[in-house]
């Protein structure tokens, strides 16, 4: 007990209370306070002593150093010597949880066990290489979707994207690619602009091609050639000839290839006289010697205009022996015009020159049946039919709006069934669906894998005049632009 009193006198009240709990477990707390004469809140007295920074603080008496019971180890600093300061961060002590499980270390793999599975790497954003791969696979629509997601192609990728849209069914994708190209920093690239001209011509949209041509900051000879040839291939030869005149007005000197596309435009427009004028101007004005391909161009101008006999006379007057290429061009023109006799004659002559031109799949033409001559006379919504022997029979016919031409029905059925069969041709059904599913005054584009028949050609001309639209039909031969009751081919279907 004396030791407790000594500790209390030394000012260590809290230690006295702690020791009392250890050495006097049976002594109650109030008795202990009364015995030691302590305050019920010793922490306040202790706090008052801690705030004192002077050795002369009240109620504080340092025990003599000779008393080893008060301070068994004197740790007070000596004058002029400060205790070493440790500014290092103490090591982190991983305390065990209540259930004695080891601490989780998320930065290291577990010691005993397989490593955690690696997180899947994020897919890199698509780039120009991905767009080039899609172009090679023919997936143009997927490539356009990537463009809408923010992919920025480089000039070679733009060129490949445009070149992939040669099919007329991809016209809308070509327009979207053109929009992204206009907003790109490469919009003045000459090669890509020329490729746009070519693809728009192949898709049958010469209006878009003309807008690209007019907006080009720079043009070369290929730009003019692509526009003239595009008009010729779309049965708009007159516009192609106007483009050639514009080319000469701006001072561009034509070359031998220029006259090839000009002759193609003359053949499309059935401009025979103008074709010969340009053919003669090659040597007289520009000093260009015509080649075999230019002579073939003149033959096509004559043949596509229906002057096959004049084409044969032109071949006979050539200053050299006509090669197989010229006879082959004449044979194709005779087949297109339906002159079977001339086709057979030219084919025999062609085989004698080049035996490799034999067509083993050709079916021999049966002899033509002799039919009575029929003449049709139109007048006041009536149609009179005249046969040989001359016996006039007047039959009431339908109004002069659309008369089915049943010659193009090859099935052996009666007349009424033939007229009904003509109504179900695929191009007519496609136009009917387009008229009811598209806005008014918008052009329709029909793509057909076979040649359009003459009856449908006449019917579509009437449709274009009634509905007031431009109907563009692409068969396996050429583009037909029907507008205001006329076709751009000049009825050369």
UniProtKB/TrEMBL annotation:
Instruction: List the subcellular locations.
Output: Mitochondrion
Protein name, entry field: Pentatricopeptide repeat-containing protein At2g15690, mitochondrial
Q: Which PANTHER family match?
A: DYW DOMAIN-CONTAINING PROTEIN, PENTATRICOPEPTIDE REPEAT-CONTAINING PROTEIN
Task: List compositional bias (Pro residues) regions by residue number.
Answer: 111-125
Question: What Gene Ontology cellular-component terms does the record carry?
Answer: mitochondrion
| The DYW domain, residue ranges | 402-493
Species the sequence originates in: Phoenix dactylifera
Gene3D superfamilies given in the database record: Tetratricopeptide repeat domain
Major localization listed first in the record, in broad terms: mitochondrion
Provide this UniProt record's keywords sorted from A to Z. Mitochondrion, Repeat, Transit peptide
Q: Where is this region: Disordered?
A: 55-125
Where are the PPR-type repeats located? 220-254
Single GO biological process annotation from the record:
RNA modification
Q: Which GO terms describe its molecular function?
A: RNA binding; zinc ion binding
What Pfam families does this protein's entry cite? DYW_deaminase, PPR, PPR_2
